[in-house]
């Protein structure tokens, strides 16, 4: 077998392998093609997925709204707490000043 015959035989073998692969691929796609019932099932599942995604988006929006409301409420509560603490501090200072005044007044007598 010379070089030309070897090349021709190799080319025929490779071409035959290609044709067999193509036929096998065609058969697999032909057998594995989804039936119409399967397609309707896939359509139904896609619709359900779409509905669930919409519900999830609504839940996320409601959660964001609730979080914003709670953040606002927390900020208001913290402001009230600061005001109350400032008032308490002022009251303590005033009480301390009054005690000092009373002690000084009693010490003069």
TrEMBL record:
Coiled coil: 35-108
Spans through the membrane: 6-28
Keywords assigned: Coiled coil, Membrane, Transmembrane, Transmembrane helix
Domain of life: Bacteria
Protein name per the record: Tropomyosin
């Amino acid at each position: 077998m010379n070089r030309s015959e070897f090349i021709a035989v190799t080319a025929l073998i490779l071409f035959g392998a290609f044709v067999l692969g193509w036929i096998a691929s065609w058969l697999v796609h032909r057998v594995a093609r989804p039936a119409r019932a399967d397609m309707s099932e896939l359509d139904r599942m896609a619709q359900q997925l779409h509905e669930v995604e919409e519900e999830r988006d609504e839940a996320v929006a409601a959660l964001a709204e609730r979080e914003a409301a709670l953040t606002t409420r927390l900020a208001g509560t913290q402001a009230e707490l600061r005001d109350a603490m400032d008032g308490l501090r002022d009251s303590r200072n005033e009480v301390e000043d009054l005690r000092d005044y009373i002690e000084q007044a009693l010490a003069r007598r």
